[in-house]
Amino acid sequence: MTSLNRLMPVAATTAVFLLGFLICALVFPNFASLRVVMNLLTDNAFLGIVAVGMTFVIISGGIDLSVGSVIGFTTVFLALAIERWGIPPLAAFAIILLVAAAFGAAMGAIIQYVDLPPFIVTLAGMFLARGASFLLSTESLPINADLYAHLSDLAFRLPGGARLTVPAMIMLAVVLAGMVLLHLTRFGANVYALGGSRVSTALMGVNVPRTTVLIYTLSAVLAGLSGIVFSLYTSSGYSLSAVGVELDAIAAVVIGGTLLSGGYGFIFGTFVGVLIQGLIQTYISFDGSLSSWWAKIATGLLLFAFIAFQQITLRMARRPRARAMGVVQP
Amino acid sequence: MNFKALMLGTALFGAGFSASALAADLTVGFSQIGSESGWRAAETTVSKSEAKKHNVTLKIADAQQKQENQIKAIRSFIAQGVDAIFLAPVVATGWDAVLKEAKEAQIPVVLLDRDIDPAGKDLYLTAVTSDSVHEGAVAGQWLVKTVGTKPCNVVELQGTVGASVATNRKKGFEEGIAGHPNVKIVRSQTGDFTRAKGKEVMESFIKAEGGGKNICAVYAHNDDMMVGAIQAMKEAGLKPGTEILTVSIDAVPDIFKAMAAGEANATVELTPNMAGPALDAVIAYKTKGTVPPKWIQTESKLYTQADNPKAVYESKKDLGY
Predict the structure, then answer these.
(1) CB A285 to CB B61 under 8 A?
(2) Bridge partners, residue B57, by sequence
């Protein structure tokens, strides 16, 4: 693929977002405001954070279905740790990130050494984490710690009542760090290589087991971080929170132009994919008369369109080379 | 550059729009939990018709049972600059931050049907909810008045064990019959708020009470269980509505059908109209500056066979129950 071709899906996603925003701005007064943009960042912060982790996993050719449950578990754990067990919030954050890291590393190790499909292993992880959070508590537990009150008030005040909140800032930082890690480091290059072909990656001398374990560890840690952000967002812990977020994250990654089969994708695309989903929800609540299930339908249609688009561009990119090599296409 | 110009154009266009919106009637954003029950669906339907009656533009966001969706909806209502926000909270906790934002934007918030964690009392204008203890009391008082001084053995079908509604409706009924030793609860068991379980439990009550001869009245914590119980009584050859009195709570359409057929006696309404009183409060607050009380209790209206149950059934059957 030429470098222009390589950027096509991301450019298409970005164009869809800008077009969508423009349509909303034309239809609704008060839409084209800094406040709406900042709300998009704050309200989708937890999704954006897990979606960055999911991008790594999917580019490496895997999938992680456990992230939504890890978010739920994190919120319940934090609520209990801070309110009932008296652990200081920052210490609780550190503990839960370590727990999440261990959980992700274990899943990565099972995928690598037991040689099971990531789908099955992380599905098991999903049930495990959700079950564990129900075991801890089935009620929604408030978190009243000072740090929480302080952090949820803390924000850069921008004109027009807009605010850049802590969750939004954490999400933006994760997106930037993810870009650096994926596009500028050896680890990132290994992730792409893994998604291309496991066998040839191993032959190239890349430490495949280590990379696999690290990828799932990263995804789980980001899910834990997302859980922390989610608990800040609602100032509470609830075992039913973030049900189905793993699927929203996968949708964001695919809409963002990443190939579900691995080997290709950009963090920036994922970020825009998250914003598109947020934009659809915002459209529906601005309209106020549409059923909110339309958000799911619109996301489904977009997913479909992007997968079809990817297949077409991929084929167009492959055909000339295949012909040159004398391969006959079926 | 073109894009910038276009954005500026839209912003100006938008500004013009909102200025004209001020002169028009109020816009209210309603963050609804979802449509998990018939009652909830009816509440949504009634809210829409009440808004029309009050000349208010109602924007409804269905949260699909998720708090994060409710928070998002409230944020976007604030961004839209609505005049008031209605919130039927899915859980009690976690509303402080977003309600603070609404407060800063000077948009009054009214809670519908459920209350939130008490820490945020100053974060909302008022809460419109029903008092389930009172509902039980209304049912109890009706029975006391109907039987007069005759002795009356009551069997009670409770709601789900531990549910606050069940506890409150039991407590209220006991308050309602207090001081009337001729009326006493002889058996009480849970029917889980469902028809099937209500029927099953009623069958065992009938067996235990001499084929139903010792039972003078049935009290059920909701209409669904009563519909099941009526079925059980009919199958046992008893005549509900005449031989055995019935009183239950909720006022769903099916109980009116039974009342019209003379098989049920009374029901206490849990009104799906929470938006009506909320709209009244918001309009008074916006136009006259009247601050409503922190809690607006909805009416727990008693319906009996004298209230033309057939007409009530017709009016309720299309609400989505």
Answers:
(1) yes
(2) B27
pLDDT tops 80 at residue B112: yes
Q: What is the CATH number of domain A8-25+32-313?
A: 1.10.3470
pTM exceeds 0.80: yes
As a whole-number percent, the residues of chain A with pLDDT over 70 amount to: 94
CB contact under 8 A, B10 and A39: no
For residues B140 and A236, give the distance between their C-alpha atoms in angstroms, rounded to a whole number: 39
Tokens describing residue B256: 């009116």
Average pLDDT, chain A: 90
pLDDT digits (tens, 9 = 90+) for A290-314: 777 888 898 899 888 888 887 787 7
b/e string for B201-222 if b means 16 or more Cβ within 10 A?
bbbebbeebeebeebbbbbbbb
A-B Cβ pairs (cutoff 8 Å, strict): 125
As given in the structure block, the two tokens for residue B94 are 């976690």
List CB contacts (< 8 A) between B72 and chain A. Answer: 39, 43, 278, 281-282, 285
Interface test with A, best of B20, B27, B48, B80 (most A CBs within 10 A): B80
Distance CA B130, CA B127 (A): 10
CA distance B74 to chain A (A): 9
Both tokens of residue B17?
Answer: 């729009």
Q: DSSP letter at B290?
A: P
SS3 B112: strand
Residues B159-187: tens digit of each pLDDT: 988 788 899 999 999 999 999 999 999 99
Q: Virtual CA dihedral for A212, A215, A221, A222, nearest 10 degrees?
A: -160
Average pLDDT for A281-295: 84
Q: Which residues of A touch B119 (CB under 8 A)?
A: 142, 144
Q: Do B76 and A39 touch (CB under 8 A)?
A: yes
CA atoms within 13 A on the CB side of A250: 20
How many residues belong to chain A? 330
Neighbours of B253 (CB within 10 A): 19
Q: Is the pLDDT of residue A325 over 60?
A: no
According to CATH, the superfamily of the domain at B132-270+304-316 is Response regulator (3.40.50.2300)
Tokens (6 digits) for B292:
């409503």
**What's A244's DSSP letter?**
T
Residue that has been written with the tokens 């809210």 in this structure? B47
pLDDT of res. A307: 83
Token duo for residue B128? 């419109």
Is this prediction's ipTM beyond 0.85?
no
Per-domain residue ranges of chain B: 2-129+272-290, 132-270+304-316
First to last CA, chain B: 54
Domain B2-129+272-290 classification at class level: alpha beta
Contacts of A164 in chain B (CB under 8 A): none
